[in-house]
Amino acid sequence: MSLLRPTAVTLSAALLILGAGACAKSEDDGSKTGSAAPASAGAQVAASASAGAATCTIDQFGGTKLDLKTAKVGFSQSEKEANPFRIAETQSIKDEAAKLGITNLTTTNANSQFNKQISDVEQMIDSGVQLLVIAPLNSDGWDSVFAKASAKKVPIITIDRKINATPCKDYLTFIGSDFAEQGKRAADEMAKAMGNKGKVAILLGAPGNNVTTLRTSGFKDEIAKVAPEIKIVFEQTGNFAREDGQKVTEQLLQSNPDINGIYGENDEMALGAITALKGAGKKAGDVKVVSIDGTKGAVQAIVDGWASAVVESNPRFGPLSFATAQSFFGGEPVGEDIIIQDRQYGTDNAKADLASAY
Amino acid sequence: MTTQVAARPAVNLKGLSQYGVYLAILLLVLYNIFFTPYFLTWSNLRIQLIQVAPIVIVALGMALVIGTEGIDLSVGSVMALAAALIPLYLGYGVVAAIIASVLAGVAVGFINGVLVARVGLQPIVATLALFVGGRGLAVVITHGQLKDVRNPDLIYLGSGDLLGIPVLVWVAAALVLVVAFLVRRTVFGRRLLAIGGNRPATELAGLPVKRVLITVYIVCAVLASIAGLLSVARIQSSDASAVGLLIELSAITAVVVGGTPLTGGRVRVLGTVAGALLMQLVIATMIKHNLQPSTTEMVQAVIILIAVYVARERKTR
């Protein structure tokens, strides 16, 4: 009896949690407008490569030509799909593979653990994949993977973050955004929104991350160039998270009430900042908010008047990755550094383009 | 001579470990009054109280568990579970969402309590299981996706005011009073402290040790689930992978800095509140002076070291 009772209660408690889906009823989704945007919307476009940029062919790399449709392809995602960027990235790879008729696609998720990502990729190489698409968690520590991959001549395409190694030898090519350029464009938008003068606070991303470093330096350099009367008075990390963005903004608004611009290095922090602005009794547009990523929530914030501009960091790597792989396996040269064009949302196009935000 | 040297610091340290946290708060406030613009304002106090409220609530439960010579690492995961369940049940109204999230707390606390009291696992190991598994389950429930919350009643809980004071702060203050009453004025509180002071003796005295222990872990987890609920209401979104991340460390810090010994047998409720406030003030001061987050962490480390050092003489109790 005394043993039975706790067991029964524990079981029923576990049932409550596990059965959460059974009788759950969630809030109506207020933003039903075009939530299922066509997969092709907002597909990436490579920025035109400058003439003479390094390229790589299958002869230089080694390996054999093959048909992508029948090839065994592996995709390794780095972080948990807790933010829209990662969700859209994985979905784009899966969608494009389905569209091209690639049936043999394996996807893994390292849940932000680097060791898991390394073993994920090594297992995929052992299982005989012929093409690897990797969204690397870290830029270093990939030597064992490269040794394994080059022994089998498996080409690796790294997306969104770069690996510190030799293209066309260790890996095939990198496809991604120019983060410094994103920061620069955010600075241009900020200068425009603020009329070239005022005080700006920066919500930095997670420390020790090249995305943070480049989005910061790109922004600061451009502000110094185009709008020297804008002063950057405050820089604190919000760790790319909404809650931290909100907390830091609450503190900064209180001790610097004359701030009139906030630059969020990602949308999540900017959305947290907007919640803080509302809590501090500010009106939409009192403080100009500019951020980077292009998630639906942030584009909606432009429509609602709280944000001024959002620079997109396009996560839809599927089409460009497979197109690159196709031309590589077909014997054509591919670029070693493929920088994509990122779109931009402002007050003029936010409403129209909301459906294609991710 | 030697006795004199040994005796004097012992007296001072005892005073420090009991009132040091208040002294530190006083010094920090004085510094800020002189060097931080707009510090002595109602809006500042308001922000600090709102931000510290979830940590205080979690730390109260942690203080009770530490009072029994235990520890609960799963509080952050409980917050995540509570957060994950809220959007699922919000369709039935805010009351249903609150019930669901609190029940999750009861379930986790019960499992923790049974593992510690009946199975006899070390608290740090027992709660480690749900520290890992709880958040995992929460991420599975939400499919790892952030959900926006728009229910006006819930948002009122997170950012509304009652008589000019944020609802969040009222809730935290009420819970502080409840826990203080529990510890000081109830049989349950006496038994809890007795277990922490000397568990074998308490068992020999015929007190219901297992029942009390299970209840303590349930109370701690329920408090954590309330904190999770309030965090969701405040951020106006539920992100199971971020809510309550690392809060177990903030809570333990608040308890220790507040003068509650890790060896059990004593719970300082007001000290715990003060400990949480001190850490919040440190963070606020660093942010307002635009210092690196790594600096904040180092200052926090020094405060913890000092707190543990002044509490050291307790070993020879």
Automatic annotation (TrEMBL), chain A:
<feature type="signal peptide">
    <location>
        <begin position="1"/>
        <end position="24"/>
    </location>
</feature>
<keyword id="KW-0732">Signal</keyword>
<protein>
    <submittedName>
        <fullName>LacI family transcriptional regulator</fullName>
    </submittedName>
</protein>
<feature type="domain" description="Periplasmic binding protein">
    <location>
        <begin position="81"/>
        <end position="316"/>
    </location>
</feature>
<comment type="similarity">
    <text>Belongs to the bacterial solute-binding protein 2 family.</text>
</comment>
<dbReference type="InterPro" id="IPR028082">
    <property type="entry name" value="Peripla_BP_I"/>
</dbReference>
<dbReference type="InterPro" id="IPR025997">
    <property type="entry name" value="SBP_2_dom"/>
</dbReference>
<dbReference type="Pfam" id="PF13407">
    <property type="entry name" value="Peripla_BP_4"/>
</dbReference>
TrEMBL record, chain B:
<keyword id="KW-1133">Transmembrane helix</keyword>
<feature type="transmembrane region" description="Helical">
    <location>
        <begin position="241"/>
        <end position="262"/>
    </location>
</feature>
<feature type="transmembrane region" description="Helical">
    <location>
        <begin position="73"/>
        <end position="90"/>
    </location>
</feature>
<keyword id="KW-0472">Membrane</keyword>
<keyword id="KW-0812">Transmembrane</keyword>
<feature type="transmembrane region" description="Helical">
    <location>
        <begin position="124"/>
        <end position="143"/>
    </location>
</feature>
<feature type="transmembrane region" description="Helical">
    <location>
        <begin position="163"/>
        <end position="183"/>
    </location>
</feature>
<protein>
    <submittedName>
        <fullName>Sugar ABC transporter permease</fullName>
    </submittedName>
</protein>
<feature type="transmembrane region" description="Helical">
    <location>
        <begin position="96"/>
        <end position="117"/>
    </location>
</feature>
<feature type="transmembrane region" description="Helical">
    <location>
        <begin position="269"/>
        <end position="287"/>
    </location>
</feature>
<feature type="transmembrane region" description="Helical">
    <location>
        <begin position="46"/>
        <end position="66"/>
    </location>
</feature>
<dbReference type="InterPro" id="IPR001851">
    <property type="entry name" value="ABC_transp_permease"/>
</dbReference>
<feature type="transmembrane region" description="Helical">
    <location>
        <begin position="21"/>
        <end position="40"/>
    </location>
</feature>
<dbReference type="Pfam" id="PF02653">
    <property type="entry name" value="BPD_transp_2"/>
</dbReference>
<feature type="transmembrane region" description="Helical">
    <location>
        <begin position="293"/>
        <end position="311"/>
    </location>
</feature>
<keyword id="KW-1003">Cell membrane</keyword>
<feature type="transmembrane region" description="Helical">
    <location>
        <begin position="212"/>
        <end position="235"/>
    </location>
</feature>
